[in-house]
Design goal:
Length: 162
């Protein structure tokens, strides 16, 4: 069977017409689509995260304050697998590996900086990062032991010799 240029044009036109009809019949929003995340306007953007170099000079911020300021950008949406604060299962898996390892990942980054050091909060101190981690764990319904709450994190950058 030989296809001429005219037949090819007719086939292409029919294909485009039919595919357009199918697309027009599809709803613009998926059925039962989850609602978009709300109240994320308190987080700061990526460019601000990578250019911010001034340390926070006020009193030590609570876990909720740090979460709202920086963590919520990823953990409020489950971006790239970042567990949401209410996800008991995912936080439980992380806690089973140990609080020390969890803090190491939070402070120094994880998976080729998919989780950036200090969660991208360059002006957070180690205590504030720990407060944010504890806030998210406890928001999930998991418990953080008193020993872990007293944990003194040590950032690898602060251990480097000059």
């Amino acid at each position: 069977m030989q296809i001429t240029f005219n037949k090819l044009c007719m086939l292409a036109t029919a294909f485009l017409f039919l595919s357009g009809s199918v697309l027009a019949a599809m709803p613009s929003q998926p059925v039962n689509a989850p609602e978009p995340a709300k109240n994320l306007d308190t987080t700061t953007g990526f460019m601000q995260e990578i250019t911010e170099d001034r340390p926070h000079t006020g009193p030590t911020r609570s876990g909720l304050e740090v979460y709202e300021y920086r963590c919520k950008g990823c953990h409020g949406r489950n971006t790239q697998g970042a567990p949401m604060p209410d996800d008991k299962y995912e936080w439980g898996l992380r806690m089973n590996k140990g609080f020390t390892l969890l803090m190491d990942h939070a402070l120094n980054g994880y998976k080729d900086f998919l989780m950036p050091p200090k969660g991208g909060c360059r002006n957070c101190n180690e205590e504030e990062v720990k407060n944010a981690v504890i806030y998210m764990i406890e928001s999930s319904g998991n418990q953080v032991s008193l020993k872990d709450k007293k944990f003194k994190p040590v950032n690898k950058d602060s251990q480097k010799t000059k």
